[in-house]
Structure formats: C-alpha cells, structure tokens
C-alpha cells in the first residue's frame, strides 16, 4: 500500500472526493515550476552562447581582441596576452558555472517528473480503491431494495388476508 493511499483512506470517504483536486493542484504547480526551470535553462544556454562567441573570436583573432579590449599595438605583447588570458579565464569560469547550474536544473526537472509519476500512481490507486466501494454500495442498495420489496409484499398479503377474513365473516 502506498503511503498516499493509506493517508487518504484514514481520513474517510469525504476526503476521497478532494484527492483529484489535490493531485491537480500539485501537478499544476509542479508543471509551472518545470516550465520556469525550462525557461531559465534556455536563457542560460543563450547566455552561454553569447559568452562563448567573444572567446572564440579572441582565440581566432588575438590582435582584433586586443584592439577591442582597449590594448593597442603600443602595449607590449605580454599585456595583451595577460588581458586575453584574463578574459578567457573569466569566460571559462562563467561557462563552468553555467554548465553546473544547467546540470542542477536538469536534476530538478527529473525530480519533478518523478513527482508527476508518483502522483499519477497514487491517483490511479485511489481510483481503483474507490471503484470497489462503489460496487459494494450498489450491492448493498439492491439488497436493501429487495428487503423492502419483500416487506411490502408481506404487508400487502396481510392486508389481503385481513380483508378476505372480514368478507368471509360478514
């Protein structure tokens, strides 16, 4: 028995009607969070691409990068190299941070998907447990109806016997 099933059964049948609502609310908030995470992931990927572009051009054209960073040919080659190396290091750190955050977001999305699966399983188990209860109620109702029918027939027979006895005596 899943922990969710026991929890719902312990509260009573009035709570069972609320379960689909609770599952729907949990699923919608999880879906919203998943959508936000996917959007954030896409933004980070775009940011990563923007950061990688200057680094690639700096590696291809070091002199153009030196002019772009404000170091001209009048500066020594060492300063240009240092500035380029600092820019590359900064971009690499940013890239590594984004890759780590991307992995964290993917892990979080996987956890949300697992939560969806678990909620779906619990919902299905609750539905299966409700169906036998409905059948049991239907059987009990028909049995009660049969008892009422027998009782009404007995009363009708008693009434007819009484009338027959009265008409025979009279």
UniProtKB/TrEMBL annotation:
<feature type="compositionally biased region" description="Basic and acidic residues">
    <location>
        <begin position="146"/>
        <end position="161"/>
    </location>
</feature>
<feature type="region of interest" description="Disordered">
    <location>
        <begin position="130"/>
        <end position="170"/>
    </location>
</feature>
<dbReference type="Pfam" id="PF15070">
    <property type="entry name" value="GOLGA2L5"/>
</dbReference>
<dbReference type="InterPro" id="IPR043976">
    <property type="entry name" value="GOLGA_cons_dom"/>
</dbReference>
<feature type="domain" description="Golgin subfamily A conserved">
    <location>
        <begin position="20"/>
        <end position="161"/>
    </location>
</feature>
<protein>
    <submittedName>
        <fullName>Golgin subfamily A member 2-like</fullName>
    </submittedName>
</protein>
<keyword id="KW-0175">Coiled coil</keyword>
<dbReference type="GO" id="GO:0032580">
    <property type="term" value="C:Golgi cisterna membrane"/>
</dbReference>
<dbReference type="InterPro" id="IPR024858">
    <property type="entry name" value="GOLGA"/>
</dbReference>
<dbReference type="GO" id="GO:0000137">
    <property type="term" value="C:Golgi cis cisterna"/>
</dbReference>
<dbReference type="GO" id="GO:0005801">
    <property type="term" value="C:cis-Golgi network"/>
</dbReference>
<dbReference type="GO" id="GO:0007030">
    <property type="term" value="P:Golgi organization"/>
</dbReference>
């Amino acid at each position: 028995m899943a922990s969710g099933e026991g929890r719902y059964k312990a509260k009573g049948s009035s709570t069972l009607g609320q379960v689909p609502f609770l599952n729907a609310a949990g699923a919608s908030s999880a879906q919203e969070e998943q959508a936000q995470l996917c959007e954030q992931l896409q933004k980070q990927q775009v940011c990563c691409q923007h950061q990688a572009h200057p680094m690639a051009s700096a590696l291809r054209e070091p002199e153009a990068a030196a002019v772009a960073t404000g170091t001209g040919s009048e500066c020594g080659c060492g300063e240009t190299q240092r500035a380029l190396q600092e820019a590359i290091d900064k971009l690499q750190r940013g890239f590594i941070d984004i890759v780590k955050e991307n992995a964290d977001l993917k892990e979080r999305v996987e956890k949300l998907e697992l939560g969806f699966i678990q909620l779906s399983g619990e919902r299905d188990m609750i539905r299966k447990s409700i169906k036998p209860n409905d059948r049991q109620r239907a059987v009990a109702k028909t049995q009660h109806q049969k008892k009422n029918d027998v009782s009404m027939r007995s009363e009708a027979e008693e009434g007819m016997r009484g009338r027959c006895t009265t008409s025979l005596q009279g």
